[in-house]
Write a structure and sequence with these properties.
This protein has one domain. It is about 35% helix and about 15% strand. It is built from 2 helices and 3 strands; from the N terminus they run βββαα. It has a 3-stranded antiparallel beta sheet, with no helix packed on it.
């Protein structure tokens, strides 16, 4: 899979390559144009819905805080030209809230 441009909010083109079911030696390529979406608006709507319903948001503040800790460590590592250790967090997506289709 390849997404071009990867960091834009419109004009996204998703390229998907996979092996043919009939001939495993052949790769089948497909391009999908993704519709424009206001990602920030959707995130704000989701957060407002969580406030009204009492649900835990999909991307809670703890996840954002962890992102900032990682970015600060990257900058510090670059400035000091040395690795920066962060505390080990066990598990996958431990800060992540419930799936969007979940009722929790």
């Amino acid at each position: 899979m390849k997404l071009e441009p990867a960091f834009a909010y419109k004009g996204l083109r998703l390229h998907v390559g996979q092996r043919s079911l009939q001939r495993p030696d052949v790769e089948v390529a497909e391009e999908r144009l993704l519709g424009e979406q206001n990602q920030f608006g959707a995130e704000i709507d989701h957060m407002a819905e969580c406030v009204v319903t009492g649900r835990k948001p999909r991307a809670p503040g703890e996840e954002g805080l962890q992102d900032h800790r990682i970015m600060e460590a990257i900058y510090r590592s670059a400035a000091e030209n040395t690795p920066v250790a962060l505390p080990c967090i066990e598990g996958l997506d431990v800060f992540r809230g419930p799936d969007l289709d979940s009722k929790n």
